Amino acid sequence: MKKKVILLGIVGMLLALFAGTSAAQTAPDAVREAAIVAAQNALNTTERPSDWRWTFLASQSTTALGCGLVTGTPLPNAMSAYAFDITFTTGVYRVHVSADAEYVQLCDEKFSAAQIESTPEGTPTVPSCIVNVSAALATVYQLPSEDAAVLASVGSGSAMMAYGRSSDSTWYQVAIPNSDSLGWVSLDSITAPFACQQLPVKASVAGDSTTGSQACFLVPASTYSNVRTQPTTDSEQVGSIFEGTTWQVYARNGESTWYYIEPGWVASSVVTLQGSCNAIPVNVELVGAGTSQAVATPISPTPLAVGLTTGIPTDAVCPASFTDYMAPRIRVGQATARVVSGGIPNRLREQPNTQGSQIGQVNPGRTIDRVLNGPACVDGYVWWLVEVDGVTGWTAESSFADEDYYLEPVGGAATPQVAETPIPDEVPHMALEINGTGIAMTTTDSRVLVALSAPVDGTSTQPPQLLLYDVPEDMATDPIVPEVIESEEITALGTLPNDVFAVVTADGTLNIYDTSSTARFEGIETDADDLISALSFNSTGSIMLLPACATTDDEGTCTQGRIDLWDAVEGTVIRRQPAHTTVPTVLFSPNDQVIASVGPDGVQFWDLQTGGFLGAVASMTNSATYDITFSPDGSQLLYGTCQIDEEGTCIDGRVVTIDPNTFEATDTTFADHSDAVSAVAFSPDGDLWASASVDGSIFVYDAATNERLYTLAEEGVVPVDIAFTGAEGHTLAVLGLSLGDAPINYLTFWQLDVIE
């Protein structure tokens, strides 16, 4: 018998050592596909591999997953992994994948160093999630059930690191303080910030049935276990479950040799049972159909990653008169609503409907921290996007069928501000009339380029123009005359290093203009054939961002925006990724590592190397967010928007500040304008920043103290765009539109004092 054990051990080692000689089709499908998709993304190809082989790697403790090229970060629990050698026409590439397909590591020097060191596009990372005990005492259970064994009790105010969540986000898998063990804690006794919703699902539960009744769970006994339609080995396989995951059992066969979980039937011989499994009812009539959860195969990143909808879906727009709905009583803003006392808790959901996944709840009498968006109307319910204790989700204000309100307003109704007309400061300036409609402006430190549509003086046969202005040093001199450059129809402008301008024309050609000679160099051919916002280049001018529209409706309205990343030298597309509900405004961070984009649904951040989603700040309203700008040191991002009341009236224009390191809005918000903020800008030295509004005012602030230094305005002119320029970087160039009968534009230069 001893010889047989030794022989089996040798055979096992040989199989592990020579697993590369076996086709990888015997590895879990999700694991294989995770490896293939990661390699395809890294190689920028859609080609399917001609062959793949794998090696099994047991007990890996870091996200390196056994790859010797990187160090990795610690995993909450050691897990098995697979090393795949994948064959494309360009060569064979190695990729490591965890047995549950959650973690992927590129592990081949044929990939770039940056790709190896970063997380492959679409690959989940280990989110950082700290939960805090809000109850007097939080009980930590062995399983996500109050019937499970108690592992520990944690006092109020304690913080715990969370590594996983249940499928309904009502339980979190946490590291028990002063212990090496993991356990489960209920959402009823903790507060979990929104980042925790990005944790991997580690337990599939049946919602309320996990409490108040005996529960049974199973976990795979090895790297994975097959799931079948019927409780027999010859029935169809409909999926697999992986090590490190927990599944609630709903039924069993009479012999207790098969157990039914959400995807289907699993044999007892390949799992470990936990909990009160003898009390599970016998029911062999159930048929497995596979998991309803998202598959583990990496996919293109989506905003907020976990299914949370932050904008109002097109099928949830409220009717004008709120027919068949209760009229809303609350509004967007800080602490403007609370849950009606004496009732039941309000649930927080990922989408504005009763089928949306529950991600939290708000107790009766509790004031909502922030109402972010709404109203949305679905099936008689009026919904609002809210934030409570760091968790963002949709909650219902009212039900038409029940004729009842669940939320009540706090404070008075929103009323428009009575804004005083700002009195402009006496600042030296030069206003230049432009006979045409300015559609875009961009600047260097010495020149300003304005793109015009056809002039409005009746000469409609004259083509569009580019006007190139020198920045005046003395505002008392005669008005400067621009150089006029004839052009095709212009869709976008941008600035490259060394005083070079980039212009995209309607046929998609990127033209380069050297400002020292106004020589034109025809550059790459893009596929931008529609009106887009400003171009953005990285600090070297080698990479370009082209915002575009991905999909349109039957009327030609853009319903899905897109960000295209281009190699500006070779003229090739590096990556295209969906973003926002319309064509966004985009720009690079000062260190060229992050892409920021803004649309009606808010501000989103993306990793430049991988395209992976980093974070988002949802729009406070359903109105447009107009402009964004980074501070030169990258420590701050500003965006301009407008606070809207329930009648759709702009109450005040706002500038919101975001910390680009945490991708969260700060407590500093400026509501000085009486109408929408159309543009924001920092000076090159970072000493000043400015905001321009549809109300005609321009405010300039000391960036260090946020004290308002200047109030600027030109009577009868609405600022459209602003930028700091000039030798000292403190001349503010303003492209404005006249409010008169003819759409005459003005380019105004304001000479601001340098802060000492």
What does this structure look like?
This protein is mainly β. The protein has five domains: 2-117, no CATH class; 130-210, Roll (SH3 type barrels), CATH 2.30.30; 216-279, SH3 Domains (SH3 type barrels); 314-409, SH3 type barrels, CATH 2.30.30; 429-751, Methylamine Dehydrogenase, Chain H (7 Propeller), CATH 2.130.10. Helices cover 5% and strands 45% of the residues. It is built from three helices and 57 strands. The strands form 15 sheets. Strands 5, 8, 9, 10, 11, 12, 13, 16 and 20 form a nine-stranded mixed beta sheet that branches. A hairpin with a 5-residue loop joins strand 51 (677-682) and strand 52. The longest helix has 16 residues, at 2-17. The protein is globular. Residues 1-26, 121-126, 207-213, 292-306, 412-421 and 456-460 have low confidence and may be disordered. Residues 226-271 form the SH3b domain. Residues 1-24 form the signal peptide. InterPro entries: Quinoprotein_ADH-like_sf, SH3-like_bac-type, WD40/YVTN_repeat-like_dom_sf, WD40_rpt. Keywords: Signal, WD repeat. It comes from Phototrophicus methaneseepsis.
N→C terminal distance: 88 Å
What structural class is derived from the secondary structure elements?
Answer: mainly beta
Count of folded domains: 5
Total DSSP helices: 3
- The gross shape turns out to be globular
Number of strands: 57
Domain SH3b: 226-271
InterPro entries: Quinoprotein_ADH-like_sf, SH3-like_bac-type, WD40/YVTN_repeat-like_dom_sf, WD40_rpt
Signal peptide: 1-24
Pfam families: SH3_3, WD40
